[in-house]
Amino acid sequence: MNYYLVLTCPLWLESLAKKEIELLWLPIINSQDKQITTTYSDENIAKLNLWSRIWNKIYIETIKKEKIDTFDKLFDLIKNVKWKDFIIENNPIVVNATSINSELSSLPAIQKIAKKAIVDNLSNTFLREDDNFATIYVEVVLIKDTCQILIDTTWEALHKRWYRRQSVEAPLRENLAAWLVLLSGWRFSEQFYDMFCWSWTIAIEAAMIAKNIAPWLYRKFAFEKFKFIKPWVLEIEKEKAKEKIMNKTYNIIASDLDHNAIEIAKINAKNAQVQDIISFEEKDFRDYLSENISWTLVSNPPYWLRIQNEDLDKLYKDIASIFTKNKDLKWWIITNYQFWDLLKYDYKKRKLYNWWEMCYFYSKVNQLKK
Ligand SMILES: C[S@@+](CC[C@H](N)C(=O)[O-])C[C@H]1O[C@@H](n2cnc3c(N)ncnc32)[C@H](O)[C@@H]1O
Asked: Do the bridges between strand 295-299 and strand 329-335 make them parallel or antiparallel, or are there none, so unpaired?
């Protein structure tokens, strides 16, 4: 089949998402905001879904993108897709639509036209949808009048790891946490700290990266039921992934003031099979003021949405004191509290979104401020 795979990821995480694709030895055919394109094969669908630390979903691009500004053109484009390559039983079809800055903006109308075009294309062969067969999720994406027709191979988005069976309010998205750890350049032989760990996310993602555990080894994907994909490829890729798990000693310390959060973190770490390499401690971060810590720290301290402002000033002053005292510590902080005046060392900052909140990811530059 002459198709492509399109991977989506959160805005500004594209460069690391690309590296992850290259680590799987796959080519980057195209890259734009929130989207990367690579080659299509059944094996690649399985591999990319299993190993996706940063991407949200993996789609099949069914036809070349086109400029579309009328419903007639949309109908023709969708009707020209070779739907018989994908819909080879009486599969139920669900059409989702997105429209950003485009002439065609009514999502229900786009969905209706799309469904009509697909049924029209298939009408000689398949007339009935049957719930006993796999549902094919079709995405019609219009951005500035450029239209993509995609098939979702993933189903539930890949930032929700299987280990998150116990949840607390508003954790970091797991793919963002993985991105933070990868960007920190943590060397697995060194100590790793998160002193505001809440429920787990940063520490568990760090542990899974260190152990080289494929993030999706134990979940179901939409493509498993697709008749046009070889049924054995996923099992083969899973076996290969299991062989790649590293069983070395690592030193990850995750602490938080909140007793319940630590208990949930332990359960989630067990689910992720990394409980043996994380020490969870119920601890006020200020205890680190009297300790020497070194190597790498990646943390997500509370910020304005979660606690009062006067407490925050004191909290960030104390965080800055820990950093000043521990000169060998490489630290990375994600927050939307602006605390650069408190820092004695130079820092870099990058913008990113944690869900809908704009945040900065601060990192130490190893020289004193001038
Ligand atoms: C923004 S949340 C961290 C979220 C976490 N990264 C996650 O994804 O689940 C901030 C955490 O800081 C903790 N915290 C607040 N004050 C603290 C203190 N003095 N010492 C240690 N932890 C504290 C809170 O209990 C909360 O769990």
From this structure: parallel
